[in-house]
Amino acid sequence: MLNRRFRKTEEAILAVFLEGDSYASTRQIAKKAGVSPSTFYRHHATVKRIARDYEDYVMWGYCRMMAPYLKRKNIKMRQFFFKMLVFMLANKRSLMILYRSEDEKIMERMVIKLKPKILNYLRLTGEHRKIFNVYVAEIVAVLMHWGENNFKESEINETLNDIMYLTDTARARLRPMMLKKG
């Protein structure tokens, strides 16, 4: 799944799907993407599965890249988030395609994948974990803003600083939520 031809085919199919008619047939999408219908079916079971399959493909690469960092005990959160942003830069074209489809779920899934490290860093346990959902929404908003600017490499440090601010101040900012019952 990592070879360049597979990835280019995936990107071509998704780009055609996102630019075209939502009722396009398999043959129409395959022709516009420059692949045969049989190649299309090796990649996707149906036209409706294209965006979801593509999101899963990007997440597979992300999980594979982040796995060693999730296991490390001594990695600092700044380094951890920097690795996430570097992955996003390396997969900028793919993320822009998904972003154009207004799919923010991929960014949410990327942050949630980091949940064990984040919960440990924020020292959240028990019912205090409900603030994690608010925290995720904040981080996704930062990532969506970066996406609006086409994931510019020149903005990676600003994005990282925003994420670290939200992370380092989460307990203090979200404390009122932790104190509420229900």
How many domains make up the coordinates?
A: 2
As a percent range, the share of strand residues is under 5%
Shape: elongated
Give start-end ranges of low-pLDDT stretches.
none
Task: Tell me the number of helical segments per DSSP (H or I, 4 or more residues long).
Answer: 11
The N- to C-terminal Cα distance equals: 45 Å
Quantity of strands, as a count: 0
Mean pLDDT comes to 85
Task: Give the radius of gyration.
Answer: 19 Å
Structural class call reads mainly alpha
| Secondary-structure element series | HHHHHHHHHHH
Q: How many strands, which pairing sense, and closed or not: the largest β-sheet?
A: none
The helicity comes to over 70%
Polypeptide structure, described:
The chain has 182 residues and is mostly helical. Helix content is 73%, strand content 0%. Helix 2 (26-33) crosses helix 3 and helix 7 (105-112) crosses helix 9 (131-148). The termini are far apart.
Which structural traits does this protein have?
mainly alpha, 2 domains, Arc Repressor Mutant, subunit A, 11 helices, 182 residues, 73% helix
List the helices and strands and how they pair.
Blueprint: H1 4-19, H2 26-33, H3 37-43, H4 50-71, H5 77-90, H6 92-100, H7 105-112, H8 115-122, H9 131-148, H10 156-168, H11 170-179
Helix pairs in contact: 1-2, 1-6, 2-3, 4-5, 5-10, 7-9, 9-10
Summarize the structure.
The mean pLDDT is 85. Helix content is 73%, strand content 0%. It has 11 helices and no strands.
